[in-house]
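Re: that chain you flagged

S.,

Sorry for the slow reply, it's been a week of failed gels. I finally had a moment to sit down with the sequence you sent. For the record, here it is as I used it:
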Amino acid sequence: MRNWSTNTKELKKDKKKYAVWRLEQLVNFGLGKEKLSKKELKKNWASLNLDPHKKSFLKSLLWP
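Prediction finished late last night. Pasting the structure tokens below so you have them in one place:
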């Protein structure tokens, strides 16, 4: 995943913030060849700032 607008070196210093940011980027802007981790999504669910429709859809997949 490439990102030109965020200093990822600085962001990686805080593992929690980086994990949340990375998940948000993958869900909102596309995965490319990567896959989402169900475990990571559930772990950081409350912190994710996602499009409401996408979040609702993911919720239905994660907690059927």
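What I noticed first: The chain has one domain: 8-62.

Talk soon,
D.
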